[in-house]
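Running co-folding for inosine.
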Amino acid sequence: MSKQPDTTSVKDLELYTKTRSTLITGTLLPDKRKVDIWYDETGTIREIGPDISHAHKGDADIIIDGSGTLAIPGLYNTHTHAAMTLLRGYADDMHLQQWLSEKIWPLEAHLTGDHVYWGTKLACLEMIRSGTVAMNDMYFFMKDTARAVEEAGIRAVLCHGIITFGDEAKLEQEMKATEDLVRHIRSQNNPLIRPAIGPHAPYTVPPQHLEVCAEYSRNEDIILHTHLAETKQEVDDCQKTNGMSPAALLDKTGCLSSRTVAAHGCWLTEDDCRLLGERGAHIAHNPVSNMKLATGRAMPYHHLSEKKVNVSLGTDGCSSNNNLDMFEEMKTAAICQKFFWNSDTLLPAGEVLSMATSSGARALGYSAGEIKPGLSADICLLSLNHPSMVPLHNPVSNVAYSALGCTVQTVICNGKILMYEGYIPQEQEIITGASSSATDLLDRAARQ
Ligand SMILES: O=c1[nH]cnc2c1ncn2[C@@H]1O[C@H](CO)[C@@H](O)[C@H]1O
Ligand SMILES: [Zn+2]
């Protein structure tokens, strides 16, 4: 029997429990077509069209009134350290290396699985609220991350951030953590959550250890998530020590392939871009983090797109951003490219929206990222009644340049409703739990 969600009091918790056959009526697509969208109980979009509701009203368990909304694909955050929400505002306005080694790493030494669980719960809440349905996450205590993600209902590629500084015992320990995570995630059988391997960066993991990571990624057929060419110092040091650029070093150690998602790429040369293109590697662009940490150069989008490199978008962690709003990230990406490369036509609105959706899904290997029959129903409904969406000369322009996360009203991931008309179950509990967890982390650090 068809069920109309209770739009006045959002107490209908049954809505949020699982994927059910759903009909969204009268929503607008970015190309301004007014359509109904029908997806089945597996979360696969079956039909999109004007007025298909007559044909499918009987098939749908849930009907969502989409009038007054714009439907866009759910957003993909392809580089983050989710639990760093707990470090939001803890250390700002610093030089990157100093920020990491003097403030962030010392505090992270006190992290427990419980902190990571609550930090990730908060991150997922913030992401869902702002229309994000998937993340590519690198951090510690990743089994706790997996538990938080599973509860939130989003997609995630998860890796343990490997930092060895050349220490063999440390490598053994980090590989064990990785293997343990891979085994754990596979045993959970959640098709939305996948394991990856995460050598942190060429400056924290030396070439012989990068080789071990590359081999593991190849053997297990999993994503290799890393940081690449973020600062000039990293590139200069790499040239001095290894006689080649960090991208060339990744390639030499077998780390560059179509399974690679490398964050930043600010200081990539044209040759590096060509190499990435040849290997089919993906770059996750994080303009807010790059500008805040003054990396000094914007990722060369023009060279990357010319060399056919897939570029997706990410926020990075909340201590270098300091939020997880992908709308803010889209706008920043589009304007940062124009400003830095002095080109007013570079990275137009449509491309930045694809970067945040289909390119992200491609980088992470999910068959989603577009609202299209046969693909997973990862859908955000934005309110057209928000000032930033009025007037609607060009919906794509509004999404890229004027909307913020707060225009998102309803979020669906793999057919499951995660937020309905602004309501997310247990939101207050998550906020309370995460803020006491952040206090506990700082208390522990102060006691030492
Ligand atoms: O912008 C960044 N550059 C380099 N490392 C970072 C950045 N943001 C966070 N981390 C660090 O990466 C590790 C992930 O496991 C963490 O230590 C986190 O603090
Ligand atoms: Zn990062």
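Result summary
The chain has two domains: 13-73+371-427, 75-364.
Residues 218 and 259 are 8 Å apart (CA to CA).
Job closed.
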